[in-house]
Amino acid sequence: MKLVCCESKKLPRLAWCAQIRKAGREITVNHGSLVETGPDYFFEGAWNGDFGNKDFGDATICAGSGGRLVSTGILFSSPTDTLERLHVLRTKDAVLVSNSIAFLLARAGDSVDLEYPFYETDLSSIVRGFRNYTKTIPTQRGGRIRLYYYCNLLINEKLVLQKRPKNIPPPFADYAHYVGFLQQELDTLFRNAKSPNRKVGYEPLTTISTGYDSPACSVLANRAGCSEAITFWNARQQFAERNDSGRRVAEHLGLHVTEFDSTDYLRMGGFPEAEFLAYGTGGEDVVMAAASHSMRARVLVTGSIGGTVWDPNHGFNAPDIIRSDPSGASMAEYRLRLGFIHVPLPFFGCLQKASIYRISHSPEMQPWSIRPRYNRPIPRRIVEEAGVPREWFGQIKKAITQPIHQPLETTMSPESYADFMSFAKNLSFFRRGYYGFGFTLMRLAYRVNLRIMQIAQWRMKPRWWLLYPVVPERYRDKPSLNLFTFHWGIIKTMARYSKENL
Fold first, then answer.
1. Which whole-number Å values give the CA distances from 207 to 139, 273, 304, in the listed order?
2. 185 and 72, same structural domain?
3. pLDDT exceeds cutoff 90 at 235
């Protein structure tokens, strides 16, 4: 097989879409200007290895995606987190693979189904883990896009696809072993990202707040050579205590910090919400739009999933990744456009959650286990041992991200809201009575099903079939315009992947 890489400066910097045809042995990859390429590979991002070896498919930590020719075909590699994914679509004579769902649809000449209201539920279902997420979504032309997380994909000349597991690190023995692993792998990834053999070197940047996770990640990033941080001073309105600025902690660590307002996006023009909604996970990372000038050519270290991995009250069975929410995922199109690498540090080694859970509950961690509910001894120890006073962080749970939901007029900028409402007027879903009636019946069935499951879980020996949902979770909420914000966002975003930009 032969790899043909076609760069376009008009495409988002880190976006790529590969086309493998049945008729020939040539693989065509259209990509943005910062995707690294060679005779037998292409890749965007960084991994915990030597950049010169191009061994991202074998890496235990991979922040980005790409593909490499092997003796049996081409091996595609996804990130080693579940925030981003690979998208695969089969056509009559080819297979398309991309790190962008919008790019994939535009390249196929297809679009989203405007009568299918469940995209966001489907695309956010990965929070339930590898075994329970929705693995395909429909397209306007009747195709099915397959979604792949935390894996490699081998596609041979006959277009037969094989899913292959990633390499994972061994279990962790104790706190020193685990934190040493995080530090070493982050150091290696930073070196990879700054390799002089790249088109551009990526400088580290970290997020920081008054919580647990981002301060701990900032400590480790600072030790690896990061000198800059960004913070948002205000948590969203539902929290009683809204001051969430990590400035004091950042400055104590010696970081130069830039502070933003989490509502700035509401005063921006150009539909800032669209690209965040276009990944199908609710768009809550739209607050990051205000920091766009700080993000180009950066390795952005965040604490995404820290609330799951480092919470001693949250246990799950490996190998799986179960999260409480999809935050962090909606930055995907934003980062592809700007050209930065997202490194959600708590994902490092998180498939060994059982050993991390044991460490959190070990006797050595008791001095840092200080409250029954909002309690994360591992990050608290990391930050306190860096000299930060205990009362400066990890006191009250807050969040700066803003899910874009009802009432849309308060969570979308005025220009975006007006454009979305104009788009929604042409939707048939709410004009056809049987849709609403059927949806209402399914929602009632869902609530009955949920109640049966709750009762079954209270019993000592429930029948196994009572513990599994019969009615899909997509019928949990009432029908609303919020079901179609993804459709609006992805149609807006697909314009950047038009044929004229290839």
1. 36, 20, 10
2. no
3. no
Q: In this predicted model, what pLDDT tens digit does every residue of 381-423 receive, in sequence order?
A: 999 999 999 999 999 888 888 999 878 999 999 999 999 999 9
Collapsing DSSP to helix, strand or coil, 479 comes out as coil
Report the CATH number at residue 248.
3.40.50
What pLDDT was estimated at residue 458? 57
* 332, amino acid identity: A
Same domain, 157 and 182: no
The string of DSSP letters for 246-292 reads -HHHHHHTT-EEEEE-TTGGGG-SS-TTHHHHTTSS--GGGGGGGGG
Cβ proximity of 246 and 210 under 8 Å: yes
pLDDT tops 50 at residue 464: no
Q: Is residue 387 domain-shared with residue 361, that is, in the same domain?
A: yes
**Same domain (yes/no): 137, 285:** no
What domain range is 261 assigned to?
Answer: 175-392
Do 189 and 133 lie in one domain? The reply is no
Taking residues 361-386, report their average pLDDT. 94
What DSSP element (H or E) covers 440? helix 433-458
In a domain, 457, yes or no: no
Calculated CA dihedral for residues 93, 99, 105, 111, nearest 10 degrees: 140
Residues contacting 130, CB < 8 A, separation 6+:
149, 150, 319, 320, 321
Query: What is the C-alpha end-to-end distance of the chain, expressed in Å?
Result: 22
Residue 495 has pLDDT above 80, yes or no: yes
> CA–CA distance from 216 to each of 206, 207, 250, 376 (Å)?
10, 10, 11, 11
AA letter at 275: E
- For residue 17, the cross-strand partners are 30, 98
Give yes or no: residues 205 and 254 share one domain: yes
CA 329 to CA 300: how far, in whole Å?
A: 13
Dihedral of CA atoms 184, 165, 321, 244 in degrees, nearest 10, equals 40
In this structure, are 72 and 200 located in the same domain? no
Classify burial at 128, counting beta carbons within 10 Å of its beta carbon; exposed 0-12, middle 13-18, buried 19 or more: middle
